[in-house]
Amino acid sequence: MSTRLAAALGAMAPLAAVLAGSALAHEGHDHGAAPPPVSKTIAPRGEALSETFELVAVPRDGTLTLFLDRFRTNEPVTGATIDVETPDGPKTATATPEGGYALTAPWMSAPGRHEFVATVTAGGDVDVLTVAVAVPDPSGRAAAAPAEPSPGRAALSRVSEVAQGVRARLGQKDPTRVGAVVVAFLLGMLVTGLARGRRSVPAVALLAIGITLVLGTAAFAHGDEDHGPAVQGAALTEPRPSGSSDLAQRLPDGSVFVPKPTQRLLVLRTTMTEQGRFHRAVELPGRIIPDPNASGVVQSSVGGRLSPPASGLFPRLGTRVRRGEVLATVTPPIQAVDLSDMRQTQGDLDQQISIVERRVDRYRRLALTGAVAQTQLDDALAEFKGLQDRRAALDRIRREPEPLVSPVDGVVAQAAAVAGQMASPGQMVFQIVDPNRLWVEALSFDALTAAQDATARLADGRLLTLAYQGSGLADRNQAIPVQFAVQGDASGLRVGQFVTVLAGTDREQAGLALPRAAVVRTGNGQDVVYEHTTAERFEARPVRVEPLDGGRVLVAEGMGPGRRVVTQGAELLDQVR
Q1: Element (H, E) at 556
Q2: What is d(CA 52, CA 77) in angstroms, rounded to the nearest whole number?
Q3: Computed from CA positions of residues 254, 38, 569, 268, in that sequence, does the dihedral angle turn out positive or negative?
Q4: pLDDT band at residue 538 using 50, 70 and 90 as cut-offs
Q5: Residue 194 backbone dihedrals phi, psi, to 5 degrees
Q6: What confidence score (pLDDT) does residue 154 get?
Q7: Which of 479, 555, 453 is nearest to 514 (CA)?
Q8: What pLDDT does 165 receive?
Q9: What would the DSSP string read from start to end of 447-478?
Q10: Is 266 in contact with 258 (CB distance < 8 Å)?
């Protein structure tokens, strides 16, 4: 092979490789891997953390906004002092109404990587944090200048640019223009070869044919596709607007991005998982009952007609009453036979009282002369007084009703008093309950020892601390009644209200204890918890949980110790899309 032919092939090879690679790339319409997704709603930011604090820095429009939280609990830190070392010297960030800290930082507007040191002082805690923020170039070009290419690379780059220019011209839909370009190029190469001499004709012809084949392939590889005009120097990802706002969103990998301002609105709180051993609790059905030592019922001992007390009004439900206070009266009815007997008894008593009264007068006169002993006079006086008391008792029975009084201090829980109503003997008219002293009675199908750490869960999720009082020895509907005393605030509870009692047993289990609110049930039925991986990123972790007590569950699998898990606001976090 001649030297000129080798040179021609050497010149054709790079151009053919560039053009052929572009042509083959369009077979099957494979344009390469898609660029990584970039959200236009996330501004540049940086973060730093320590064992105490978590700091997020967001530059926007020449202002650096700082968000400071507790690392373990994600609670916002207010009233702190943040000193920042800037190119203009140390500056102190000022608090904002949104719960963050702001600092004027025009130097953060320049594209590139910016690092600064922040000294945080909050109460007795002092920490030094280093934050790095990468600000992209708004034009989409790389910030660093390219290195000076070598002569060989410069020549290859020039060939590539020429090929791209030709390929761009060939990319038009008009086939006449394509044919004209190819024919003109071929004729030009042939004329040039002929002008230089006959010996160079084979090399020039070979070079022209090769270029024609490559250009023809590149020209017709696009078919009828319209890729639009070529853009020189376009970036793979569109630059983010400088004034973009942060929005909570679910990222393509399944994690959830939640900016710090949104975390404040959702009140997201976290805790650090710790391995431990806990007593298993059993669930028992129960209901609220009054404390037998601080409650009572008001009943009538005899049947009669109910009447209001001296105030004229029956106590209504919820009225606080005192021990011994009259709540109602009962007037016993008198039958006709009883009334006749009573009148006969009253007549006999009146006759006896008259006889004894005359005897007392006679004994008094005789006692002055000594004819009657003083003892006889005293006996007559005692008999006279007894007859008067019996007569007065009969009158009192006919006129005075029976008072119904409160046996304890408390409030009226039940009332069945209506004016004129006939009350039967032993019928409950009022129930008095002390609202601050209530019990819970649960039914257990297994014999329980003195239960420890017992709690009761209401329908609204409220928890009550219980103290074990005792259990029965006789079954009730094949179950054993177990009684607990409600500890602490008992406001809002009602007698007879159903609750779920969780009583601790002697059985121990190992695992991670988390609040029930930390576990979220997904659409496929899987239980997940959200781990706080970075300052503004949360990832769902599938877990297997078991009931532990009224407010906590035991994570048996899926989560290890030393992880930050969302304990408040996880349900809201799961709704982010």
Answers
A1: strand 552-557
A2: 11
A3: positive
A4: very high
A5: -65, -35
A6: 46
A7: 555
A8: 53
A9: ---S-EEEEEE-TTS-EEEEEEEEE-SS-BTT
A10: yes
CB atoms within 10 A of CB 119: 15
CA–CA separation, 108 vs 376, rounded Å?
122
CB 545 within 8 A of CB 553: yes
Place of tokens 């070009």: 141
Quote the CA–CA distance of 78 and 53 in Å, as a whole number. Answer: 12
Residue matched to tokens 């790339």:
25
pLDDT for the residue numbered 288: 92
CA–CA distance, 346 with 340 (Å, rounded to integer): 10
The per-residue pLDDT for 24 is 37
How many whole angstroms separate alpha carbon 84 and alpha carbon 432? 66
Q: How many CA atoms lie within 13 A of 124 on its CB side?
A: 0
Cα→Cα distances 452→281, 463, 503, Å: 9, 15, 7
Q: What is the pLDDT of residues 113-122, one digit of tens each?
A: 888 888 998 8
Contact yes or no for 434/413 (Cβ under 8 A): no
Cα–Cα dist 347/257, whole Å: 100
- Contact criterion met (CB below 8 Å) for 327 and 404: yes
The mean pLDDT of 545-564, rounded to a whole number, is 81
Cα(556)–Cα(385) distance, rounded to whole angstroms? 86
Query: pTM of the prediction?
Result: 0.51
Which residues fall within 8 angstroms of residue 370, CB to CB, at 6 or more apart? none
Q: Which of 82-86, 277-281, 469-473, 499-503 has the lowest mean pLDDT?
A: 277-281
Judging by DSSP bridges, how do beta strands 320-321 and 480-487 pair with one another?
unpaired
With 70 as the cut, is the pLDDT of residue 402 above it? Answer: yes
Amino acid identity of 287? R
Report the pLDDT value the prediction gives residue 61, as an integer from 0 to 100. 84
Where do the H-state alpha helices sit in 370-491? 374-399
How many angstroms from the chain centroid is the CA of residue 114?
A: 36
Q: How far is CA 403 from CA 189, 394, 406, 419, 433, in A?
A: 131, 17, 10, 14, 20
DSSP at 225: -
Condensed to tens digits (0 to 9), the pLDDT of residues 251-276 reads 888 889 999 888 888 889 998 988 88
CA angle 183, 186, 188 (to 5 degrees): 105
At 29, the pLDDT band (50, 70, 90 cuts) reads very low
Nearest alpha-carbon partner for 45 in 36, 37, 54: 54
Angle, helices 3-25 vs 201-220, to 10°: value is 0
pLDDT, tens only, 504-521: 776 777 778 888 888 888
Which tokens hold the place of 353? 């009282």
> Is the pLDDT at 393 greater than 50, yes or no?
yes
Tokens of 526: 């899987």
pLDDT over 50 at 215, yes or no: no
Question: Average pLDDT for residues 436-463, to the nearest whole number?
Answer: 79
Is the pLDDT assigned to residue 544 strictly greater than 60?
yes
| DSSP states along 51-71 | SSEEEEEEEETTEEEEEEEET
Residue whose token pair is 């239980």 = 527
CA distances from 242 to 137, 245, 250, 418, 505 (A): 10, 9, 22, 77, 60
Q: Are 291 and 485 in contact (CB under 8 A)?
A: yes
> Would you state the torsion angle of the CA atoms of residues 179, 182, 183, 184, taken in this order, to the nearest 10 degrees?
120
